[in-house]
Amino acid sequence: MRVEFDGGTLLLREASEDVPYAEWDDRVEEYRAPAYRYRNVLEWADAWNDEDSPSAGQESAHQGTIQSATIAVEDTA
Questions:
Q1: pLDDT string in tens for the chain (77-residue length)
Q2: 3-class SS of residue 50
Q3: Is the entire prediction scored with pTM above 0.85?
Q4: Where do the structural domains in the chain lie, given as residue ranges?
Q5: Is 29 within 8 Å of 36 (Cβ atoms)?
Q6: What is the CATH T-level fold of the domain 2-52, as seen in this structure?
Q7: What angle do CA 77, 15, 36 make, to 5 degrees?
Q8: Bias category Polar residues: which stretches (predicted)?
Q9: Closest CA to 12 of 28, 31, 26, 29
Q10: What does the pLDDT read at residue 63?
Q11: Cβ burial, residue 49 (10 Å; 0-12/13-18/19+)
Q12: Where are the beta strands (DSSP E) in the chain?
């Protein structure tokens, strides 16, 4: 999944349909999420660390409320 900042939203390229807070955007045929959900999306993908910077393989703080899925994330946001 590639995360891009685009006009106040996160454009989630090649994302699966189970990404939390994401909605399908027919205009670009990709999922989008509100930009303020950036950390939530990266935590879901196990790509957020405790120093508030993206890093693959870290445990999610929201594992109990959002199903975690370790996936490859390219973060350009």
A1: 999 999 999 999 999 999 999 999 999 999 999 999 999 998 888 877 655 454 444 333 333 334 445 677 777 77
A2: coil
A3: no
A4: 2-52
A5: no
A6: MutS, DNA mismatch repair protein, domain I (3.40.1170)
A7: 40
A8: 55-70
A9: 31
A10: 36
A11: middle
A12: 2-6, 9-13, 23-25, 30-34, 74-75
